[in-house]
TrEMBL record:
The keyword Acyltransferase is annotated on this UniProt entry: yes
Transmembrane segments: 12-38, 50-70, 316-338, 344-364
Any one annotated GO CC term: endomembrane system
PANTHER family per the UniProt record, alphabetical: 1-ACYLGLYCEROL-3-PHOSPHATE ACYLTRANSFERASE-RELATED (PTHR10983), 1-ACYLGLYCEROL-3-PHOSPHATE O-ACYLTRANSFERASE 3, ISOFORM E-RELATED (PTHR10983:SF24)
Family to which this protein belongs: Belongs to the 1-acyl-sn-glycerol-3-phosphate acyltransferase family.
Protein name: Phospholipid/glycerol acyltransferase domain-containing protein
Amino acid sequence: MGVLTSMKQSSVIHLMFAITFFTSGLIINFFQCILYFGLRPFSKYLYRKINYYLCYSFYCQLVFMAEWWAGSDLILYIDKKDFDKYFGNEHGYLLMNHSYETDWLIGWLLCDRVRLLGNCKAYAKKSIQYIPTLGWAWKFAESIFLERSWDKDKENIKNQIMELVEYPDTMWLLLYPEGTRFTSKKLEASQKFAIEKGLPVLKYHLTPRTKGFTASIPHMRGKATAIYDIQIAFKPSDPIKPTMKNLLLGKRSVGHMYAKRIPIEEVPEGDEAAAEWLHKLYQQKDHMAESFYKTGDFFATSGVPRTDSFTLKRRCYSLINTILWAIVVLVPMLYYLLRLLLSGSIIYLLIGIAIIFLFYLLMYKTLGMSEISKGSSYGATDAKKDK
């Protein structure tokens, strides 16, 4: 085992990651809070301009872990002319499959490489906004938080979308129409629901929940916004599974991303017609997934026209940013931790141990957020409410 490999598997190094990430996150949250209440009421434009860089400084530490620490990469399957003309130059409403623990982070690699990472938004459960650092950052970044109460969510989606489409810089908003992570158990419940409701029965995706989609689209029409159909897959034959823990251990994974720009005018007006359009899109996504899992190619048997494939160079900013934060955070933090541990006082020793334990707990809690939630489900009750 080489020195570098040993470092990547070292619990001490992982602790340093955790200290840097969470301490920098709290510092960034502090400035976001001041700006949110002190600047945003007077100038949303200036607030969003500054907050872009604060969000980027925080998010890109995870991008660093994926592409610099673990050496992961992303192969894109996109029409090159569309990519050069539109990607990063207009607001995007991203519809992505939710099949893996790290699909969102691999998506962030693309966002960073098209200079949009600081303006990435998402639909998320309301409870997430109360989680320190990442949840607070999403709150201050004006992500859309849902309560799973349709009367409240519908109005919230309307108000937030109308705000987001007025962003001064390009913004991408991510929606997972499946609502939860794919598992075989959830697939069984999803297929049962689809049969009961006469909807397309999918093999590799959960039946999409359409209300969030149909409630969002009307408020995007007439704006500089397009839909981006995103399909992410990892080859089943890859020995390294795409998990956050493997990335932390420095184990490389390669994501394959198909992306197609769809003018928002192609979505028919009316909730029922728009919902039917989304179900048809997911049928196509299912064909692509089946083709990829069986042949290693999105296009071989899916019937989707083959498109360009290429990779983008990784940018150095996530590396520089993470190194700078490590210096700013770790030098004083480790100095005072060592003083506590070597003070000879049992009380100070216990305080030092408690701080170390807290950072470890935060690190594994954050890793656990990307794992499949045992509490989330796809059953008839939930699906009926979100259909």
